[in-house]
Design brief:
Layout: E1 3-9, H1 17-25, E2 30-35, H2 45-53, E3 59-62, H3 65-68, H4 72-84, E4 88-91, E5 96-97, H5 101-134, H6 147-155, H7 160-167, H8 171-182
Parallel strand pairs: 1-2, 1-3, 3-4
Antiparallel strand pairs: 4-5
Helix pairs in contact: 4-5, 6-7, 7-8
Keywords: DNA integration, DNA recombination, DNA-binding
Family: Belongs to the site-specific recombinase resolvase family.
Protein name: Resolvase
Length: about 180
């Protein structure tokens, strides 16, 4: 029986240290972490690795349920998958485990709260953007990579993979930038 920890933050500028310290203090022998949105299960390779690693009697530990996911259906599906492997889930804050009969009810309610919180966050964000647009100060999201540099490197004859490494984006994003500019 292993205690395996999973930690997640949504953005690159958020810090995993608090979750990692808590999971270590709880005796997790293996901890996987990632910086990716919890709005969906998609694109979360560390979570998939943890689930695939779980064996009968193992325990997956998360600091808070919203670290596992912010969509109730996703969270319940993740818990179901874990239980199909004979393992169980423990949430540290508030302390709830799927080992007991009340754990499932509590985790379902907590999952619904996490999903509702995500909807509130998105709604506040949308309202803030609308206010900024109305005030004429909205500039859109910040660019994550330099599109002009992609074009310059491409003009020099450098291939998409090398451009992606140089700019710090995926090869697919390079293809999109080049495609969108030629249209």
């Amino acid at each position: 029986m292993a205690r395996i920890g999973y930690a997640r933050v949504s953005t690159l500028d958020q810090d995993l240290d608090g979750q990692l310290a808590r999971l270590t203090a709880e005796g997790c022998t293996l901890i996987r972490s990632e910086k990716v949105s919890g709005g969906s299960r998609e694109g979360r390779p560390e979570l998939a690795t943890v689930i695939a690693f779980l064996r009968a009697g193992d325990e997956l530990v998360v600091a808070r349920l919203d670290r596992l996911g912010r969509d109730t259906r996703d969270v319940l599906n993740i818990i179901y998958e874990i239980e199909q492997r004979g393992a169980f889930v423990t949430v540290l804050d508030p302390h709830v485990s799927t080992q007991g009969p009340m754990g499932h009810i509590m985790l379902t309610v907590l999952g619904m709260v996490a999903q509702m919180e995500r909807r509130f966050i998105k709604e506040r964000q949308r309202e803030g953007i609308e206010r900024a647009k109305a005030a004429g100060i909205y500039e859109g999201g910040k660019r994550r990579f330099d599109r002009e540099r992609i074009h310059a490197l491409h003009a020099e004859g450098i291939g998409p993979a090398a451009i992606a490494r140089a700019v710090g984006c995926s090869r697919m994003q390079v293809y999109r930038v080049l495609r969108d500019s030629s249209a």
